[in-house]
Design a protein that fits this description.
Layout: H1 11-14, H2 18-30, H3 36-55, H4 76-114, H5 125-137
């Protein structure tokens, strides 16, 4: 049977809060109820994790943060970049298109205002439309 040391660094218990110490004690006491194969797998996994930490390498199955599924290949980051570029190009195209189409109307407005024509007609535009409609009817 595998023996379990409670803590390889006993000085760490002094710096932990009481809740963490209670949890650690509970987990250590529940460790006795596990069967031998489970204890062996836990010891092997712990040894592998400690060895990887000493080497400074990540776990062999770990993936970067942008890989969401275990079966995902390296396509997620380039696809996201392409989608971002497409949105940016579309936004700029719409911005340029809307800015260029409004310019012709602005020129006509400036010409109309600078012509010196009588613009009072536009104050009663509804009346003139009504008058034109009644002239056609009568």
């Amino acid at each position: 049977m595998t023996t379990h040391k409670s803590d390889p660094h006993p000085s760490r218990n002094g710096s932990q809060d009481p809740f963490t110490i209670r949890i650690r004690r509970h987990l250590e006491t529940s460790l006795g109820s596990l069967d031998e194969p489970t204890l062996e797998r836990l010891a092997t996994a712990r040894a592998a994790a400690l060895a990887a930490a000493r080497r400074g390498t990540a776990h062999e199955h770990s993936q970067p943060f942008f890989m969401f599924q275990a079966g995902a290949s390296g396509w997620l980051l380039p696809a996201g970049a392409m989608a971002s570029i497409a949105v940016m190009v579309l936004s700029l195209g719409l911005l340029v298109n809307s800015a260029s189409s409004g310019g012709a109307n602005d020129v006509l407005d400036v010409e109309l205002l600078s012509s010196g024509a009588n613009l009072d007609v536009y104050d009663n535009l509804d009346f003139y439309r009504w008058l034109a409609a009644n002239d056609r009817a009568g």
